[in-house]
Amino acid sequence: MGAHGQVGQLLVNTLSENDFQVIGGYRDPATQAPQATTEFTPVAFDLNAPIATLAAKMQGADAVIFAAGSQGKALLAVDLDGAVKAMLAAEAAGIKRFIQLSAFHADDRVHWPDSLHDYYIAKYYADEWLRHRTQLDYVIVAPTTLTNGEATGTLTTEPTATSTITRQDVASVLARAVTSDLHRETLNIANGAVPIAQCL
Q1: For residue 52, is pLDDT > 90?
Q2: Is a pLDDT exceeding 90 seen at residue 1?
Q3: Distance between CA 49 and CA 53 in Å, rounded?
Q4: Which residues contact 187 (CB under 8 A, 6 or more apart)?
Q5: Burial call 98-131: b when 16+ CB within 10 Å, e when fewer
Q6: How far apart, in whole angstroms, are the C-alpha atoms of residue 88 and residue 164?
């Protein structure tokens, strides 16, 4: 879900190119989604809907990737409660694997930037719910500052506060996380020197 966001659009393409069958969640597929293909099915997915409705949309999926965000416009409804509802819906649909896009240092309020303080609050509590209030087999992907540069295909899992990472590399990590050997772990990432395939 969040398939229309900047990372979400790249993620849909990356998953499709790697032979995944993708169901992309959009608020309004008619205006936001690309054409359906044999590898890609767009669906209407409103995080304000009841959990049972969200679970019905997820039926048959092997994993959920939560990449939705409100760009600061609905942090409680989307970035926090929307994430929690997605987790509850996944469990109701019998899905075990859950990949969550978070942010570097979301787990440590000492490092929260003043300009994004409320965003980090939402990420912190959504991640905490995933860790402690679900039985989901999760990977929390926590990138540093995002850029629109060309993909590098390389990472460090020991970033610093000044590190950056391209959105395409984040999308590649999210896609690989689905079938990776990481289980109930948080992966901090920035562009570095190690091929993505060696980090997951």
Answers
A1: yes
A2: no
A3: 6
A4: 139, 140, 141, 142, 157, 173, 177, 199, 200
A5: bbbbbbbbbbeeeebeeeeeebbbbbbbbbebbb
A6: 32
Q: Which two tokens stand for residue 24?
A: 């992309």
CB 57 within 8 A of CB 29: no
At 172-200, the pLDDT tens digits run: 999 999 999 999 999 999 999 999 999 99
Q: How many helices (H) and strands (E) does the chain have?
A: 7, 9
- Known catalytic residues are 119
Measured over the CA atoms of residue 75, residue 76, residue 77 and residue 80, the dihedral's sign is: positive
Mean of all residue pLDDT scores within the chain: 96
- Alpha-carbon gap, residue 22 to 17, rounded angstroms: 10
Query: 64 near 86, Cβ under 8 Å?
Result: yes
Q: For residue 29, which amino acid is it? A: P
SS3 192: strand
Widest Cα–Cα separation across the chain: 46
Find, among 10, 7, 38, 45, the residue nearest to 24 by Cα. 45
SS3 percent helix, strand, coil of the chain, rounded to 5, is 40, 25, 40
Half-sphere exposure of 126 (CA within 13 A, CB side): 35
Give the pTM. 0.96
Stretch (H or E) spanning 8: helix 6-17
